[in-house]
Specification:
- By secondary structure, the chain is α+β, with helices and mostly antiparallel strands.
- Helix content is about 30%, strand content about 15%.
């Protein structure tokens, strides 16, 4: 049994498990000691085992970890089929099936995962307000860079939000997940959106927006000020 505290990228060399070793996984929503929900997952031995069916492993996820996994699943498999939205999901708390409803006899509805924000949400949206942002967006070089970049779908306002948030952090960096939230795109599209922003901010090969290999997005404030002719 284990309770997951955080999810991290794996550095292991991993191969797919054999299809004949597939197992079933049961889920249940339980309540933690502080009243917060936990998702409990139990796997059961494969059908190849001679012993009777029994739980072999179990893990529990908090809301924060669960939302991190949602972002990872979207990055791995793409966004879910939006036509499936609104279908009820059974809830087995206290051994009963409970379907959330917007009113007592109304249709069952599921919350949109894009609007669910737990108290310990890892995607903390930092303040995008900074005096250099307006100066950057209104500069002639910014306008020229946008024209040179060609088709860029990220709006100026979103670029400003990202730059402002980066300027307001101690080390001028945010996570890729935070950057995706600031740009208003799913995590699976963050790389493409950030590449578009790079085309505008990186003047003549000088790196202003730096995409680290460890899922960190960093701003070189000095290079930005110099290349766009901004006040310090």
């Amino acid at each position: 049994m284990a309770r997951i505290s955080k999810v991290l990228p794996s550095l292991q060399q991993i191969r797919p498990h054999k299809a004949e070793d597939q197992v079933e996984c049961e889920w249940k929503i339980i309540v933690d000691t502080d009243g917060a929900p936990l998702l409990h997952l139990s796997t059961f031995g494969s059908t190849n085992r001679a012993s009777k069916r029994k739980s072999s492993q179990s893990i529990q996820l908090s809301a924060g970890v669960g939302h991190e996994l949602i972002a990872i699943l979207v990055e791995a498999f793409g966004a879910p089929d939006r036509s499936l939205e609104g279908l009820p999901l059974p809830d087995t708390r206290d051994g009963r099936d409970v379907i959330p409803r917007d009113q007592e006899d109304g249709d069952a509805v599921l919350p949109d995962v894009s609007t669910v924000v737990p108290d310990d949400d890892p995607v903390e949206v930092l303040s995008p307000e900074h005096p250099l942002v307006a100066e950057l967006l209104n500069s002639e070089i910014f306008s020229l860079q946008r024209r040179l970049a060609g088709r860029v779908s990220v709006p100026d306002a979103k670029i400003g939000q990202l730059v402002g948030a980066l300027l307001n952090t101690r080390f001028l960096e945010v996570t890729r997940l935070q950057a995706a939230a600031l740009l208003g795109v799913p995590l699976g599209r963050a790389t493409g959106a950030l590449s578009q922003v790079q085309k505008i901010l990186d003047v003549e090969g000088y790196e202003v927006l730096i995409l680290g290999s460890n899922d960190v997005v960093r701003l070189d404030k000095g290079a930005m000020v110099e290349q766009f002719g901004l006040s310090r």
